Automatic annotation (TrEMBL):
One of its GO terms (molecular function) is ATP binding. It comes from Rotaria magnacalcarata. This is Protein kinase domain-containing protein. PANTHER family: PDGF- AND VEGF-RECEPTOR RELATED, ISOFORM J (PTHR24416:SF600), TYROSINE-PROTEIN KINASE RECEPTOR (PTHR24416). Residues 1-199 form the Protein kinase domain. It comes from the Eukaryota.
Length: 218
C-alpha cells in the first residue's frame, strides 16, 4: 500500500493539456530536476520505475514563471524488480504488468516479452520522453500516429521526435542524450549526470534572464 499526500492540481499531463499551466522553460527545468531527484533516490535503492511519464508526476503547486512556486512528486513507480527499500513476503508471484507502454519504453525493451530488460538506463530513456512531452504542452508521444506497432517500428529504427517549440537547442541536446545511440543503453547518462546538465542549463537561463532585464531597464 502506498499512502501519500493528495495532489490537488492533478497530474502534470492533465494540467498541461488543460492549458491552465503554460510554464516557461525555466519552470520546466525546475520540474525536471524535482522528478530526477526522485529518480536518484529510487536508483539508490535499486528500484526501476518502469513507467516514467507526465501522468505519473503529481502537481501540488504550479506557477507559469516562478520556478520556486512549482512542486511535483513522482508516483506510480512499478515494482519491476526487488530492491532494498521494500520486502516481498510469502509470495513468488510477479508484481509486473506485462503491458509494455511502447511510446515511453526504451528500444531495447520492445523486442522482448515481459520486463526482463527494464533498467535504470531504460528509465533514463523514458525521462527523455517525459521531458519532450512536457515541452510539447502534454502532447502524447508520437501523437500523430495511432498504431502502437508503427511507433514500435519507428523506435526500433532509431527515429526520435522533432524539437518542441518550448525547448531551446541546449535543452533539446540534453533530451536527445537520453535516447543516445539507439539500443546501447550503457552510453546514456545516469540520472545524476542528467541532473547536473539541467542545473547548468538552469543557471545559464537565469543569467540570460537577468541580463535581458538589465538591458531593458538600462
Amino acid at each position: 500500500m502506498l499512502i501519500q499526500a493528495y495532489a490537488t492540481k492533478g497530474d502534470l499531463a492533465e494540467v498541461l493539456k488543460e492549458n491552465e499551466f503554460q510554464p516557461s522553460q525555466l519552470v520546466l527545468l525546475e520540474i525536471f530536476v524535482q522528478i530526477i531527484d526522485a529518480m536518484v533516490y529510487l536508483v539508490n535503492y535499486g528500484i526501476v520505475h518502469g513507467d516514467l511519464a507526465c501522468r505519473n508526476a503529481l502537481v501540488f503547486r504550479f506557477h507559469n514563471s516562478n520556478p520556486q512556486e512549482n512542486l511535483v512528486k513522482l508516483t506510480d513507480f512499478g515494482l519491476i524488480r526487488p530492491s532494498t527499500l521494500y520486502l516481498v513476503v510469502g509470495s513468488t508471484a510477479s508484481t509486473a504488468n506485462l503491458l509494455v507502454l511502447v511510446r515511453y519504453a526504451a528500444p531495447e525493451i520492445l523486442p522482448i516479452e515481459g520486463f526482463s530488460n527494464y533498467s535504470k538506463k531504460s528509465d533514463v530513456h523514458s525521462m527523455g520522453i517525459l521531458m519532450c512531452e512536457a515541452c510539447s504542452q502534454g502532447q502524447l508521444p508520437y501523437a500523430s500516429i495511432e498504431d502502437d506497432n508503427e511507433v514500435r517500428r519507428l523506435k526500433l529504427n532509431g527515429d526520435i521526435f522533432r524539437r518542441p517549440e518550448n525547448c531551446d537547442e541546449k535543452l533539446w541536446t540534453i533530451i536527445v542524450q537520453c535516447w543516445h545511440q539507439h539500443q546501447r543503453p550503457e552510453v546514456r547518462p545516469t540520472f545524476k549526470m542528467l541532473k547536473q546538465s539541467l542545473l547548468e542549463l538552469r543557471l545559464l537561463s537565469i543569467v540570460r534572464y537577468l541580463l535581458r532585464i538589465y538591458f531593458i531597464y538600462e
